[in-house]
Specification:
200 residues, mainly alpha, two-stranded antiparallel ribbon, elongated
Length: 200
């Protein structure tokens, strides 16, 4: 199973690559560097979002880790990303042009920072979804894989997961009705074994 470092590295590399592939045809070296930096940030954060919404401490992978959710995010996100990217590039070009009018160091620096922020944000948008998908691809290679939609039951556990969770809680076992836990007093000498409850 890929660790956090591998997931971060995959997200960053994928984000940078996507930002460079979606660059403008006549982009300057400065634009490429700024958008690549944004792609690295977007890819890294996008990769971590899966474990933010569905932490790895859980023994299941739910909707955010699913193929269906990834497909929806990719299709809708890619379509909607083009417009804000175009606006950010246009705004960055405007700041770059205004810098040629100002000779004061303070004004020049403010406009340069504003331009850089717009170009980094452009790359961030490009890299976020690919970063998320890179994490998903790594999870798909694990023995558990990823669900088509959701493998979680009503309370987010499979039967075996619920059994382990309940047994870890002192004196409980999974109920045969739903995903609840039955409580058994087994700490006393006359208590019943929680792993082998009586038939009802």
């Amino acid at each position: 199973m890929a660790g956090r470092r591998e997931q971060d590295a995959a997200g960053i590399v994928t984000g940078v690559a996507t930002a460079l592939l979606t660059r403008r045809k006549k982009a300057s070296a400065y634009e490429l560097v700024a958008e690549a930096l944004g792609g690295a940030l977007g890819g890294g954060i996008g990769s971590r979002l899966l474990d933010f919404f569905e932490p790895a401490i859980h023994s299941y992978r739910n909707v955010v880790h699913s193929v269906a959710f990834a497909g929806t995010v990719t299709v809708k996100g890619t379509k909607r990303a083009a417009r804000p990217q175009a606006r950010l590039r246009a705004q960055a070009d405007e700041f770059a042009e205004r810098r040629t009018w100002h000779h004061g160091l303070f004004e020049w620096m403010v406009l340069w920072l504003a331009e850089t922020a717009c170009r980094v944000a452009t790359g961030f948008i490009a890299g976020a979804i690919p970063g998320y998908l890179s994490h998903l691809a790594l999870d798909a290679k694990t023995p558990r894989g990823i669900p088509l939609l959701s493998l979680a039951s009503r309370n987010g556990d499979s039967g075996s997961d619920a059994h382990a969770r309940c047994v870890r809680a002192s004196g409980t076992v999974p109920s045969s009705r739903g995903m609840g836990c039955r409580t058994y007093e087994f700490n006393s000498p006359g208590g019943r074994d929680p792993l082998h409850p009586p038939h009802r």
